[in-house]
Amino acid sequence: MQVPVFLLGIFITCGCMADSIQKTVILSGANGLLGQKLVENLAGRRSVNLIATSQGDNRILLREGYTYRPLDITNPAALRAIFEEFKPTEFINSAAMTNVDQCEKEKDLCWKINVEAVAEIVNLCREFGTRLIHLSTDFIFDGENGPYDERAKPNPLSWYGQSKLKGEEIIIGAGIPFLIIRTVLLYGIVADMSRSNIVLWARESLEEKKPIKVVNDQFRSPTLAEDLAEGVVLALMKGRQGIYHISGPDQMCITDIVYQVADFYGLDKSNITEVSSDSLGQPAKRPPKTGFIILKAQTELGYNPHSFQEGLAILDRQLREE
Ligand SMILES: NC(=O)c1ccc[n+]([C@@H]2O[C@H](COP(=O)([O-])OP(=O)(O)OC[C@H]3O[C@@H](n4cnc5c(N)ncnc54)[C@H](OP(=O)(O)O)[C@@H]3O)[C@@H](O)[C@H]2O)c1
Fold first, then answer.
1. 150 CA distance to ligand 1 centroid (A)?
2. CB 258 within 8 A of CB 161
């Protein structure tokens, strides 16, 4: 049977639409913990053309299903060039100076990365009609009365917290479509990490029988990196805007986190010494009690994070596969 030419045209158009790219997403900080999990989640999706960027070479284990470009977000010319090349519908800003004590000691560099680069990205998003998805932190709060919801009043105690809050304020005041996703104490593993996290640090130290000091006056909602990536992708795909709190479901004392890691791996807890935050003399002040109320993300995005115990089991499987 001969198919009329006009019908053939319709079939071809429909077929192309089903396969067509709907989003061109540039991701910054792709070598980081969240960045790599986002690449794993988004790479190879038919509806997403993913351009992963980070400073320096590609350190992501997964090598297919996306394009990689080196990008230092503090370089305005490089930022502009990547916007001009790809004309993104979305820009996910996962790049940041995330070491809280380093931010306290290198304030100018921290401001450059966490504030000035964000202002530059905002300008480009406005020019190119790009929705900005930006990652922020529980450290914008003072930790006096956590867990916090999205309407809580920020009051940062550290330079890192101040810089992340300023980044948020620039985005909110810019009049562009935006999503700010705040999170808490990430844990997980990816290739070639530039910094560790509470679970890996506790496991490694206790396995090596190193005595460790752990604060018993700070509370957080530990967040599995895969869960955060899934939350970001849900918000991205649903076209949401505004502020979302995305963390693990459990608010826990830091000592409980470490004791649970020790129990999970059957490690000797006598190497753990409980201390107060003040006794550590760290350069940056930490908020005592944060953690998030995640009801908005659960109801509006269908976000459904793993418990800390489930997260430990997932991470353990990944460590065995290494
Ligand atoms: N980790 C947490 O517990 C936590 C808690 C709350 C909020 N957050 C927020 O969540 C986001 C992701 O955190 P994460 O844990 O995935 O951080 P991460 O592992 O430290 O990753 C950040 C990435 O940004 C890159 N980067 C730093 N400066 C850059 C620059 N000038 N240009 C381009 N890339 C640059 C880093 O590169 P290198 O790898 O080369 O250093 C790193 O790959 C951040 O916005 C952070 O503020 C994290």
1. 22
2. no
